[in-house]
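To illustrate the input format used throughout this study, we show a single complete record. The first block contains the structure-token representation of the backbone; no residue identities are included at this stage. The design step must infer an amino acid for every position from geometry alone.
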């Protein structure tokens, strides 16, 4: 058994651009059936597990939606921006929902994994400073890395404050140096300070020239997902990001 809900509310919540008034009209046009029976009234209480068909399309009720986006450069992680394209503008109509937002930010010039959802509660838990969900970045540097970087970062380095602000102490982070390219590495952070990856390398006298988030928790960015593309992911997989197998902090 699912949840009891009015038919108009349920259908309007699952199909973007369809209002409750539209559901009423669809009922009058005999376009909606529940468990095989045509529905004349849109205010009928139905169960979210019922078999609901709207104009030939089966609705599988989902309370919330979770989307993996491969963000390209030049796109901003906000819901509105007068100038630049936003991550929400990349979501195809069939995945779009009212209330969708990015659960965490990447800089405009950073590529990679952004989680989009309309689940405020789960996003709040993920973004909480206490959650420590690890995030891994692929980094390309202007100058070759030095072996010593890994040690400094693993001890928890201090970075200068932004715009003359106070210095900030980072949590231990894991740096893996590429065996093939001495300007490339991957870095795993357990927090999300403003411009953190760029500031950590800048503190060591280097500069990030390309940055891509390649995983959140143990969920890797799907390698078949092209830049700008979205993939729906399951609630249970996102929930599991919050319960890591081993939490050092
Ligand atoms: N660190 C950065 O500097 N930029 C990002 O977009 C993410 C992490």
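Output of the design step:
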């Amino acid at each position: 058994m699912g949840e009891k809900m009015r038919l108009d509310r349920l259908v309007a919540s699952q199909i973007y651009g369809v209002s409750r008034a539209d559901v009423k009209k669809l009922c009058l046009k005999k376009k909606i059936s529940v468990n095989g029976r045509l529905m004349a009234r849109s205010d009928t209480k139905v169960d979210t597990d019922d078999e609901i068909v709207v104009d030939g399309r089966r609705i599988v009720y989902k309370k919330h939606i979770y989307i993996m986006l491969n963000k390209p450069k030049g796109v901003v992680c906000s819901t509105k921006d007068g100038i630049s394209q936003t991550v929400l503008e990349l979501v195809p109509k069939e995945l779009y929902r009212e209330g969708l937002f990015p659960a965490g930010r990447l800089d405009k010039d950073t590529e990679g994994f952004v989680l989009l959802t309309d689940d405020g509660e789960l996003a709040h838990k993920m973004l909480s400073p206490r959650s420590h969900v690890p995030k891994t970045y692929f980094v390309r540097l202007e100058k070759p890395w030095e072996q010593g970087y890994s040690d400094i970062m693993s001890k928890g380095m201090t970075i200068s404050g932004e715009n003359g602000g106070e210095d900030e102490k980072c949590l231990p982070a894991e740096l893996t140096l590429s065996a093939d390219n001495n300007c490339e590495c991957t870095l795993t952070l357990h927090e999300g300070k403003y411009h953190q990856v760029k500031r950590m390398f800048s503190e060591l006298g280097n500069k990030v020239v390309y940055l891509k988030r390649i995983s959140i928790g143990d969920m890797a960015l799907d390698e078949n997902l092209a830049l700008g593309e979205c993939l729906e992911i399951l609630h249970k997989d996102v929930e599991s990001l919050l319960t890591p197998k081993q939490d050092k902090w």
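Structural context for interpreting the output: The chain has a mean pLDDT of 94. The helical segments are 7-14, 20-28, 120-127, 148-154, 196-203, 235-241.
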